[in-house]
Design a protein that fits this description.
- The structure holds two protein chains of two kinds.
- By secondary structure, chain A is an all-beta fold.
- Chain A has no helices and eleven strands.
- In chain B, strands 2, 4, 5, 8, 9 and 10 form a six-stranded mixed beta sheet that branches.
- Classes of the chains: A mainly beta, B mainly beta.
- The A-B interface holds A 33, 35, 37, 44-47, 50, 59, 61, 95, 99, 102-107, 109-112 and B 32-33, 35, 37, 39, 43-47, 50-51, 88, 90, 92-94, 97-105.
């Protein structure tokens, strides 16, 4: 069974940093592209970042470019999102999602981890 | 880049049929597949339609998807509405770099 479990969320002050992790199991993590998607409270889904299976291709939404860094460790079946210079508008539930058999789309999602940026 | 626009909310009675639209702002709706996701409160999204009109196993055949090039839009149709269908629905596609684009979401109320 495919499982994606996010961790690392919490309360952080504006300007602070946080590192999210996503532990994957139930599939061969190393062959799939992975993504982060966020959802602000009461709002819709917004794509944040993607990373290809071997980390050759990395993309970011304009809203996080230069502040967030996506990475992965295929030996540990883990995906990461380093978030620096956090702003109030970064407050959201952050989901990791697998891009699987469906081209250009998520097929499995984690349950999400809440990041709150507030003083 | 392009945007996907959905109605903010729709409502319909149990047993009826409802259609949710998703209009692409630029470029052809047919150029990249459209997916649809259901999200119940407090839960992660789950896919109900992929590649415009394909249904994953386990999704009832009451759910169907289509695209219309004349209106440059995709649609999700749910027939025989049940109260359990009440949720937020998001359309999703991708751009030329395979970056994901989501619609703003539609709240379906089954009353």
């Amino acid at each position: 069974e495919v499982q994606l479990v996010e961790s690392g969320g919490g309360l952080v002050k504006p300007g602070g940093s946080l590192r999210l992790s996503c532990a994957a199991s139930g599939f061969t993590f190393s062959i799939y592209s992975m993504n982060w998607v966020r959802q602000a409270p009461g709002k819709g889904l917004k794509w944040v970042s993607s990373i290809s299976s071997s980390s050759n291709y990395i993309y970011y939404a304009d809203s996080v470019k230069g502040r967030f860094t996506i990475s992965r460790d295929n030996a540990k079946n883990s995906l990461y999102l380093q978030m620096n210079s956090l702003r109030a508008e970064d407050t959201a539930v952050y989901y990791c999602a697998r891009e699987g058999a469906i081209v250009g789309a998520p097929d499995y999602w984690g349950q999400g981890t809440l990041v709150t940026v507030s003083s | 880049n392009f945007m996907l626009t959905q109605p903010h909310s729709v409502s319909e009675s149990p047993g009826k049929t409802v259609t949710i639209s998703c209009t692409r702002s630029s470029g052809s709706i047919a150029s990249n597949y459209v997916q649809w996701y259901q999200q119940r409160p407090g839960s992660a999204p789950t896919i109900v339609i992929y590649e415009d009109n394909q249904r994953p196993s386990g999704v009832p055949d009451r759910f169907s998807g289509s695209i219309d090039s004349s209106s440059n839009s995709a649609s999700l149709t749910i027939s025989g509405l049940k109260t359990e269908d009440e949720a937020d629905y998001y359309c999703q596609s991708y751009d030329s770099s395979f970056m994901w684009v989501f619609g703003g979401g539609t709240k379906l109320t089954v009353l």
